Amino acid sequence: MFERIIHYYCVVFSNRTSMFKLTLQYFVYLINSKSGRGHGIHSPFVFDFTQKVLSNKSNKPVLKSIDKYIDSIKASNIMLPSSPYGAGSANTSSIQSVRSVISRQAVPKKYGKLLFNLAQWVSARNILELGTSLGVGTMYLASSAPLASVITIEGDETRCQLAIDNLIKLGLFNVNVVQGSFDSELPKVLRDSISLDLVFFDGDHTYHATMANFEMCLGKVHEGSVFVFDDIRWSNDMFKAWQQIVSNESVTISIDLFRMGIVFFRKGIIKQHFNIFY
């Protein structure tokens, strides 16, 4: 039960969300949350989401390959300089091991599988990721549909090159890794995009950056689009951004999984918010 609290406490220890406040948020979340198996959920759409995405226990060979590869690179002796991009890391060291970067910053396997299932469930063909890091989340998204087009943006040049190497070694050639800041590269990517089926926000966790990136991407949504936000409780500002996103008039269904937040833009339905245990 306390796995995600401990994880967040380790990551946000410095000037981020306090342990007491995070624990309190978790108990409030538990009290208000529905079962990840769909019990008590009366929305047919959200119930289907719990069955096809959250409760999908199938472990396809491609997922096993990704998990095995992640374990192999975590054993690497490669050391990386700390990245000046993004916000949220409590690690102030000038260098970090690959293992540390994956353990602290990459999407855990459980949530990687969620991204994989979600992309398949919405039949995503145009996928955008903000914050590549070493490409772990990208692996799950790109593997979900070999015919999908995945664009991922990463500011740090060293991490960007390692992500490219990792994707090539896994045989994932449907990814365009863009190196540069979100401020400079995101407008270019959106200008050349017709629409976005799935966007994974996993980069700069500041309030202003999160809101700015969300509002820019809104111009490319359609009724079947889905946005996923990682680390919605990383800081007070990040949670404030999440709450504002949930209240946006374009969002009709929002789902709080404690670590991740997911929003949909389906038309013709009553605006609803769900806390679902995962």
Oligomer: single chain
Order of helices and strands: HHHHEEHHEHEHEHEHEHEEE
Q: Within the largest sheet, what's the order of strands?
A: 5-4-3-6-7-9-8-10
Q: End-to-end span in angstroms?
A: 10 Å
Main sheet specs: 8 strands, mixed
The average pLDDT value, as a whole number, equals 88
Describe the model.
This protein has helices spanning about 5-10, 20-30, 45-55, 60-75, 100-105, 110-120, 135-145, 155-170, 180-190, 205-220, 235-245, and strands at about 80, 95, 125-130, 150-155, 175-180, 200, 225-230, 255, 260-265, 270-275. The strands form 2 sheets. The chain has an 8-stranded mixed beta sheet with strand order 5-4-3-6-7-9-8-10, sandwiched between helices. Strands 1-2 form a two-stranded antiparallel sheet. The chain is built from 11 helices and 10 strands.
